[in-house]
Amino acid sequence: MRGPTASANPVERVLNKVGRAGLRARNGVRMATGASRPAVGQTPKDVVWRHGRSELWRYRSAASDPSDTARPPLLIVFSIFSRSYILDLRPGNSFVEQLLAAGFDVYLLDWGVPDERDAANRLEDYVDDYLPVAVERVREVSGADQVHMLGYCFGSVLALLYAAHHQDAPLGSLTVMTTPVDLDHLGPLGNVTGVGGLDVGALLDDDGNVPPQVIYQAFKALKPTTAVTQYVDLWQGLWNDEYVASYQAMIGWATDHVPLPGGVARQLAQMIRDNTIVNDRLVVGGDRVSLADVTVPFLTVLANRDHIVPEAAAAPLLDLIGSTDKHELRLDGGHVGLLVGKTAARTTIPTIIDFLLRRSEESSRSATEADPAPHDTVDER
Amino acid sequence: MTSKPGWRRVYDTVERTVAPPAEVFVRSGEFAKLAAAVVGVRRTVGRGVNGATAMAWHLVNLPARSDVQRLRVQIGALDRDVRRLSSQLEQSRTSRGRSDER
């Protein structure tokens, strides 16, 4: 709905203000009563595998027959800190939607909501149990020999560990977004367990997991004025229905975290103290794991205004990877801005899709590695 | 939206002044130590309250919430073991199937 527009005429200006005040009041009441909750995660999908609380989703594509095996299968590995619907936030503002439109056969591994049955989970559970079986399931369903994997945030770390620990994994390529590797530069999230010496046990709830409220407060502390600014932004745009819907969807997601398994939290604290990834001291399932063992075609995407995974924490990744075919995208944006919003839709996602398509075309053409053509917005090494 | 209203420009100016030092503080070691101390105190107080409540329930021979929770965590650990075993079984079946195909 279009709101009243600004005018130089004083009478019209007053009428505009009155009109906006009315729309603000209406939308305010709708929000307060919960009458205007925007639907999220609307792209149709099928559950093709279940394990514990986790589900593997296959998104239906309107562009082509779902049984079309020519479409390259892309498995998205999401973070275990938050909910995956950010990838399919709203129709017209959906990472998944754009991937489908680009011709991918899109799968998403959703970790669900952990409870006390997941309290003892360790990274090995995800890297050595869930991911190998999920990859096999994608191969079965898609009929493809190779799977392209894309990780986001901590999902990237899981994807990297999987690729490093399973060198025979049938991966066509690996793309990771906003990946924390130099944990000394993680900022407050790392400082609390590092400099602060916080015992992770003190964070755990009775179910053995870090409660979502703690995770929310930790992220909220990174930008202390954001909580107020959000309300100021809302007041300014409250007259605009489209703005309110986007605001509700985005803020709803940003405050909607899931419990973090206590076993993983303890491992993470140790990883932060020892900065294990850049110091090449990673251990998964009792085995030493090095990112130098990741040899598949590789792309890392990082954002220069990311306050959750600062640029300095993600930047060393490319040098740690063993692939000869490896690339880096540095984009102007924030942590979530890589996935949602106008800039993401117009610039970021098409650039990532372009890379993925090239990698999948190359892998389908077989083993011959060709140098990708330079891209305007890409800082390649 | 059109140009920013006056009140918004005032807020942005204040925010630009306040935000940088606030962000520097939350990124400091002092904040990390303070946050860790607050969490520790909250945990200690919570444990004290839970302990007292549990004692009251135990006096009347009933399990406390913490007893039930401990049991659920133990069952959860068993569930995880079964989950890992079934996953490893699935992986070995898949790899055997693929080697048979070859």
Please characterize this protein's 3D structure.
The complex is a heterodimer of chains A (381) and B (102). Chain A has 381 residues and is of the alpha/beta class. Chain A contains twelve helices and twelve strands. Chain A has an eight-stranded mixed beta sheet, with helices on both faces. In chain A, strands 7-8 form a two-stranded antiparallel ribbon. In chain A, helix 3 packs across helix 4 (154-165). The radius of gyration of chain A is 22 Å and the shape is globular. Chain B is an all-alpha fold and 102 residues long. Chain B folds into two domains: 1-62; 63-102. Chain B has three helices and no strands. Chain B starts with 5 loop residues before the first helix and ends with a helix. Chains A and B meet through helix 3 and helix 7 of A and helix 1, helix 2 and helix 3 of B.
- Structural class by sheet pairing and helices of chain A: alpha/beta
Task: Classify the oligomer.
Answer: heterodimer
- Beta-strand level of the residues of chain B, as a percent range? under 5%
Beta-strand residue percentage of chain A? 15-25%
Query: Which term fits the overall shape of chain A?
Result: globular
Tally of distinct domains of chain B:
2
What is the fold-level CATH name, i.e. the topology of chain A?
Rossmann fold
Largest interface: A-B, 44 and 45 residues
Q: Give start-end ranges of low-pLDDT stretches of chain A.
A: 367-381
CA radius of gyration of chain B is 27 Å
The major beta sheet of chain B can be summarized as: none
Would you count the extended β strands of chain A for me? Answer: 12
Kindly report how far apart the N and C termini of chain B lie: 63 Å
* Secondary-structure element order of chain A, N to C: HEEEHEHEHEHEHHHEHEEEHHEH
Mean pLDDT of chain B: 88
Strand order in space, largest sheet of chain A: 1-2-4-3-5-6-11-12
Morphology of chain B: flat
Structural class of chain B: mainly alpha
- Flag low-confidence runs of chain B: none
